[in-house]
Amino acid sequence: MLTQFGIYCRKLRLDNGELLKHMATKLGVSSSYLSAVEIGKRNVPHDWLEKITSLYQLSAEEVESLKLSIKNSQPSIKIDLRNTNNQEKDLVIAFAREFKDLNEDDKAKILNILRRNSNGEVKY
After folding, report:
1. Residues 53-71: pLDDT tens digits?
2. 84 band by pLDDT with thresholds 50, 70 and 90
3. Cα–Cα distance measured from residue 4 to residue 98, given in angstroms and rounded to the nearest whole number
């Protein structure tokens, strides 16, 4: 099943009359690798935002849409815990283990807590 990034790329290819193999060549990867990224078996490489923006001369609005599609398509994330204390590590690990079992209300509460800065203002 295509991720949001995969849907974005498919539309981009259709709009430009390209096949998957053409886009893959432009990105310097194999067709199978691009396909794996589009269906979420692989993360979107960090440099693809810039590459796709440049290759297809995307507008500011299109870049924002691409950014959102990349963000919403990542099957996994890495969290750097090198400069964290044990309590912070415990928090991250506990959340990673339990987040799928949280109900929607609890998820919303946690998200609201995390989006607030020390002044009580919403970050985004």
Report:
1. 999 999 999 999 999 999 9
2. very high
3. 25
Q: Distance between CA 40 and CA 43 in Å, rounded?
A: 7
Report how far residue 102's alpha carbon sits from residue 75's, in angstroms, rounded to the nearest whole number: 19
DSSP string, the chain: ---HHHHHHHHHHHHTT--HHHHHHHHTS-HHHHHHHHTTSSPPPTTHHHHHHHHTT--HHHHHHHHHHHHTT-S------TT--HHHHHHHHHHHHHGGGS-HHHHHHHHHHHTB-TTS-B--
What whole-number distance in Å separates Cα of residue 69 and Cα of residue 110? 23
Domains of the chain: 4-71 (1.10.260.40), 79-124 (no CATH)
pTM: 0.70
- Give the CA radius of gyration of the chain: 18
